[in-house]
Amino acid sequence: MDKLIITAAICGAEVLKEHNPAIPYTVEECVREARSAYDAGASIIHLHVRYNDGTPTQDKERFRVIMEAIAQACPGVIIQPSTGGAVGMTNDERLQPTELNPEMATLDCGTLNFGGDEIFENTENTIKYFGNRMIERGIKPELEVFDKSMIEMALRLEKKGYIQKPMHFDFVMGVNGGIGGSLRDFVFLRGSIPSDATYTVAGLGRFEMPLAAAAIIDGGHVRVGFEDNVYISKGVLAKSNGELVEKVVRLARELGREIATPAETREILSLPVKQ
After folding, report:
1. Taking the domains of the chain in order of start, what are their residue ranges?
2. Is 179 in contact with 185 (CB distance < 8 Å)?
3. Pseudo-torsion of CA 31, 36, 40, 41, nearest 10°?
4. What is the DSSP string of 56-67?
5. DSSP letter string over 130-157?
6. CATH class held by domain 6-268
7. pLDDT above 60: residue 1
8. Which of 23, 35, 27 lies closest to 59, judged by CA?
9. Coil, strand, or helix at residue 33?
10. What's the farthest any 2 CA atoms get from each other in the chain?
């Protein structure tokens, strides 16, 4: 069984300081939260960026500044920018951080009803466009799937050459409009990916730690962080992303999984070598 890869989703595009005062907006705050997660055992920082007032942005220069600052504070860490952006952004706007040639980036594999009138749109042509961009730039896509149908889309597009093997999935579970966060749902998704694929589980809110435990036992990998959950326990706000990572590390140790370093993570995920 591979060592456990821990991803920290340090801020997201929607969660606010009103939800937890420790949510990072500024460059300095993002570095603080990334360093807390890295020191606790995270080898991947999943990154959205904000302006200082909390407004989400996909601006390439904002990503550049924050990514460079995190890389300096967290030697060797893998920075995984989001191409999801926020509802309403154009494809090219969302793809801006790929121009920085990161090792990894997310690739959302379907459209989702986020609630009310908000639709997170990812048409088949959008997914192809994003897939081609990542192949051209040598970026490993983390295939974000919110439901079983999105796995089917990814598998179909891999056969057509828009996604390359070995595939790495992120099961985002418990989101409004997507699959639930039960163990049954996890087993359903887990059994739907190829045998040579890897996966990470990101459970929202109260689903975060139970799904983390399931992934640890199964040999998968785990994402935690303020994007998905702002609480360390019921009703108690987490003080940092690092506190959430520490909880996963304790759980992994109890269950007999060692934690992967960034170098080991690169090997497990077959990340492309960047010059």
Report:
1. 6-268
2. yes
3. -20
4. EE--HHHHHHHH
5. HHHHHHHHTPEEEEEESSHHHHHHHHHH
6. alpha beta
7. yes
8. 27
9. helix
10. 47
